[in-house]
Write a structure and sequence with these properties.
The chain is an alpha+beta fold and 176 residues long. The protein has five helices and eight strands, in the order ββαββααααββββ. Strands 1, 2, 3, 4, 5, 6, 7 and 8 form an eight-stranded mixed sheet that branches.
Length: 176
């Protein structure tokens, strides 16, 4: 597990959990940032974490860092949303822990015949990132993001984190 992560799990006023990420490690404006994100994620390989809601164990395999940093969905991200996905890498254990509302879908691609033999699961996740003042000295608020955590159900019976998709900034009031 990666040490010295500044991450907390909170419950909002509506009773929904979110992960508060207190540091911006990645700017995500150039390819080098995504190379750094991928390198960072490699530290999680071999770990497993449990979803609180369902008690399912989710494993981190060797394909996760590359998929997270190089997938078509990631390449399509721009601006603050790309930066949000990059920085969500710091909170993988906590995001798995708070994952909610699993939805199953069958495998649709031949290339995933083995690695997702039993299909895919999508879970709802939420996280918040700090927004700094003009001098980058003080946090003025936190923006909240929602996303889908994509998990593949492999032929070994285990569930593996595959990617985080559909990252969207929530339009509700930011976390103060």
């Amino acid at each position: 597990m990666i040490e010295n992560r500044n991450v907390n799990i909170l419950t909002d006023a509506d009773g929904k959990k979110l992960v508060l990420i207190n540091d911006i490690l990645f700017k995500a404006k150039v390819r080098d940032d995504w190379t750094a994100v991928e390198k960072y994620l490699k530290e999680y390989i071999g770990d497993s974490y449990e979803i609180e809601e369902t008690f399912e164990k989710i494993y981190i395999s060797v394909d996760f860092p590359d998929e997270y940093a190089s997938s078509e969905s990631r390449i399509a991200l721009k601006g603050a949303v790309a930066k949000a996905k990059a920085n969500a890498a710091q909170a993988i254990p906590e995001l798995i822990k708070i994952a909610a509302n699993p939805k199953h879908e069958a495998n649709r691609k031949e290339k995933h015949k083995t690695d997702a033999e039993y299909g895919w699961y999508r879970y709802n996740i939420r996280f918040a990132l700090p927004v700094y003042d003009d001098k980058m000295e003080k946090v003025t608020r936190h923006n909240i993001y929602s996303a889908s955590m994509l998990v593949r159900h492999a032929n070994d019976g285990r569930k593996y984190l595959y990617d985080i998709l559909a990252v969207k900034k929530e339009t509700s009031s930011p976390l103060e």
